[in-house]
Design a protein that fits this description.
alpha/beta, about 20% strand, 12 strands, about 300 residues, elongated, 3 domains, 7 helices, Immunoglobulin-like
């Protein structure tokens, strides 16, 4: 599922979609379903409704819905949200699910067309390790609980990290790795690393995981809160969990730098003058003309 689109792009099946399943994970159609589009104001982070509040999605198969949209040429670059509203049965409450996406310049939209095969392989491996390879687009109808009554209105589908972000984390990890001795500055790109030293890919991935977890920790620090009223309390705190994951990744990265120092061949040589005058040397054979040796004294 793409998470960024460009003006004039026509969205179809597989772009902004949602899958509904029952308790047995069997596809099931909703009693009623609609969606609305919102632009997220970058200054206030407030949602601005675009068009109708109850748009009808396409329904190509049982339980599958998608938003058939055309991004207008005048669409403003930035963040958007699609808010799905649906009911499982006629007498059940409405459920709301949010998907986030962005509209960007066409030249920047598809990084898959500009990154190399080696970079793509590393991005895919990193996404697999951080369990972000298959966004949870499936909404499971479950019996109501107090937790779901709170979370059902802020559930967001989509990949956590964009490809551009993961590639940035990989490059920062590689720079970090090259800072440790011995000198490996020749492996200064992901392509060179994969081609010339594939055994070090895991070390770079662990470093990238550390950067990714730090980014999420920073985001959640701003969104954490604790609330209590009428004997009911709500505590939203996730940054420490991502911080723990970051520290774990750094531990493996540190072990990889130690292995790097032990397994990299280091060649040390002794530089000697080609011509030495009055210099006594026992290191030969580079003892040029004019160099004294013990034999000269016999």
């Amino acid at each position: 599922m793409a998470t960024s689109f460009y003006p004039t792009q026509e969205l179809s099946r597989g772009d902004l979609d949602i899958y509904l399943v029952d308790n047995q994970d069997a596809p099931v159609n909703a009693y009623e379903i609609s969606f609305a589009l919102f632009f997220v104001d970058p200054a206030t982070q407030q949602e601005v409704l675009i068009g109708g509040a109850r748009r009808t999605p396409a329904n190509p198969s049982i339980g599958e819905y998608y938003a058939p949209l055309l991004i207008p040429p005048s669409a403003q670059f930035g963040s958007y949200r699609i808010r799905w509203v649906f009911k499982q049965l006629a007498n059940t409450p409405e459920q709301t699910v949010v998907q986030g996406f962005t509209v960007v310049d066409k030249g920047l939209r598809n990084i898959s067309n500009v990154i190399s095969a080696n970079q793509r392989s590393m991005v895919d491996k990193l996404r697999l390790l951080i369990r972000d390879q298959n966004p949870d687009k499936y909404y499971h109808f479950r019996p109501p609980t107090s937790e779901e009554n709170i979370s059902q209105f802020n559930r967001v589908f989509g990949q956590i990290w964009e490809d551009e972000e993961l590639l940035e984390y990989l490059e920062r990890s590689l720079d970090w790795f090259n800072m440790f001795p011995p000198e490996t500055e020749t492996l200064n790109t992901i392509d060179k690393l994969v081609q010339n030293k594939p055994a070090w890919r895991t070390a770079i991935l662990w470093g990238a995981i550390s950067h990714a977890m730090y980014a999420l920790s920073a985001n959640w620090t701003a969104d954490e809160f604790e609330y209590s009223i009428g004997g009911i309390s709500l505590n939203l705190e996730k940054s420490s969990k991502y911080e723990s994951l970051k520290q774990g990744a750094e531990t493996y990265f540190d072990k990889a730098t130690e292995a790097k120092a032990r397994t990299t061949k280091i060649v040390r040589g002794l530089q000697q003058p080609k011509y030495g005058i009055g210099v006594r040397s026992a290191f030969g054979p580079n003892v040029g003309r004019g160099v004294l040796s013990p034999r000269n004294f016999i």
